[in-house]
Amino acid sequence: MRFIHTGDWHLGKLLRERQLVDDQAFALRGLVRLVEQVRPDAVVVAGDIYDRAVAPVEAVAVLDEVLAGLTLDLRVQVVLIAGNHDSPRRLQYLNGLVTRVGLHVVGEVGAAPAGVRIAGADGTEIVFWPLAYTDPETARGALGSADIHTHEAVLQAHLGLVREQMGDDARHVVVAHAFVTGAQPSESERPLSVGGSGEVSRSVFDGFDYVALGHLHRPQRVGERVRYAGSLLKYSFDEAEHRKSVSVVDLDATGAASVETVQLPVRRDLVRLTGAFDELMERPDAADYADAYVEAVLTDTGPVLDPMQKLRAVYPNILSLRREAGPARTRVRDSLDVGGMSTRDLFAAFYAEATGEPLSGVQQAEVDAALTASGREEREAGG
Predict the structure, then answer these.
(1) 320-325: long-range contacts (C-beta < 8 A, 24 or more apart)?
(2) Do 129 and 50 fall into the same domain?
(3) What pLDDT band is residue 96 in, cutting at 50, 70 and 90?
(4) CA 381 to CA 88: how far, in whole Å?
(5) Percentage of the chain exceeding pLDDT 70
(6) CA distance 41 to 10
(7) Of 238, 243, 218, 241, nearest to 228 (Cα)?
(8) pLDDT reported for residue 198
(9) Distance between CA 328 and CA 355 in Å, rounded?
């Protein structure tokens, strides 16, 4: 049995006010081509289909195009769950109809998880257990249990019900949306809860042949059979070094799994470039980033006039500009006798605290000249 594990599409997401739906459509058309090439028996989408509960119409159109291509044109089964960004009921409402064409949508787990049994070309059968993201309050009501107060308790309850239905005649794959303890998060992910109650231990998934996870955007493995496919695209500059991919999983009749990661084509890369302003303006490889979404991190210690506008001439899709943090330093103001200091000394102390370096001789001379001119103007105004 071969299936593709993907997730965290976040259709409709904005990056620094830039709409990414065209970039997402480009990558997902690449996914459809990959499915046509490798001919999997199923595609698993592990949550966060949309970036927000009420998705823009352009995002809905992209999802419709992709799912129609997979199920109607390529005749591939699709198992799709809601993540914490999705509206469970908006995803769930068509499930009774679209199941007939091989699209299995689970927005709400409800009181009893239901498996999706799919047979591979070699006769191997897999039961996929789609466990849509469910917060503890919702799970307490759906399962009639007052003891569910954490996300781990939610999954323990759902997986307990799953284990009661499991047989030995098939392999079993869990599809879930969760933050497993020990995995590496990224800054673009929305926390599931405050504190540590949103994390779940890897051991809750013991006994399953493969666990296809969504939520964390970095592709990673957190156990022998527990894996995050990662997000469709880079969704923050913190993810600039990620290698985004989908996971092509082969699971044989004995339960042995092999995983190949495949990068999808991207319309624009997302990069973080660090250096002094002049260095970034004159980079010999600047043309390589002409189409990329760019964050420039300036290392200049002195002022730079209108850097964003100037950098845009070289990097047309620059979206972010920031200064690199200076070296660690103590707060000098707490030890200063401010009342007994001259304006000259106050400015020198402020500069040292702001930059971590003392004024140079040239800079001190410029400050002295400015203070002299200011004093002259005050005297002339008073005279």
Answers:
(1) 320/16, 320/237, 320/294, 320/295, 320/296, 321/295, 321/296, 322/295, 322/296, 322/297, 322/298, 323/297, 323/298, 323/299, 324/274, 324/297, 324/298, 324/299
(2) yes
(3) confident
(4) 70
(5) 91
(6) 24
(7) 218
(8) 86
(9) 10
Say which amino acid occupies 194. Answer: V
* Cβ-contact 85, 48 below 8 angstroms: yes
Per-residue pLDDT reduced to its tens digit, 115-149:
999 998 777 889 999 999 999 999 999 999 999 99
Where does residue 282 rank: exposed (0-12), middle (13-18), buried (19+ CB within 10 A)? exposed
Question: In this structure, how many other beta carbons lie within 10 angstroms of the beta carbon of residue 165?
Answer: 13
The CA-atom distances, in angstroms, between 169 and each of 119, 125, 174 are 12, 8, 16
Burial class, 64, CB count within 10 angstroms (exposed 0-12 / middle 13-18 / buried 19+): exposed
Which of 243, 262, 281 lies at the terminal end of a domain, its last residue?
Answer: 262
The dihedral of CA 286, 288, 293, 295: what is its sign?
Answer: negative
Q: Identify whether residues 81 and 150 lie together within a single domain.
A: yes
DSSP secondary structure letter of residue 184: -
Q: Do residues 220 and 193 share a domain?
A: yes
Q: Can you read off the two tokens belonging to residue 184?
A: 């590496």
The enclosing domain of 20 has a CATH number of: 3.60.21.10
Residues 96 and 174 reside in one and the same domain = yes
Spatial distance between the Cα atoms of 201 and 181, rounded to a whole number of angstroms: 5
290/353 same-domain check: no
The least confident of 194-208, 307-321, 333-347 is: 333-347
**Distance (Å, rounded) from C-alpha 230 to C-alpha 211?**
13
* Same domain (yes/no): 154, 279: no
The verdict on 24 and 122 lying in the same domain is yes
Q: What is the mean pLDDT of residues 54-65?
A: 95
Percent helix, percent strand, percent coil in the chain, to nearest 5? 35, 25, 40
The residue among 209, 227, 262 that closes a domain is 262
Q: By residue range, what is the domain housing residue 317?
A: 270-323
- Distance between CA atoms of residues 119 and 310, nearest Å: 58
One domain for residues 319 and 342: no
Q: How many domains would you assign to the chain? A: 3
Identify the pLDDT of residue 383: 47
DSSP letter string, 260-286: EEEPPP-SS-EEEEEE-HHHHHT-TTG
Q: What are phi and psi of 89, to 5 degrees?
A: -70, -30
pTM of the complete model? 0.83
Amino acid at 49: I
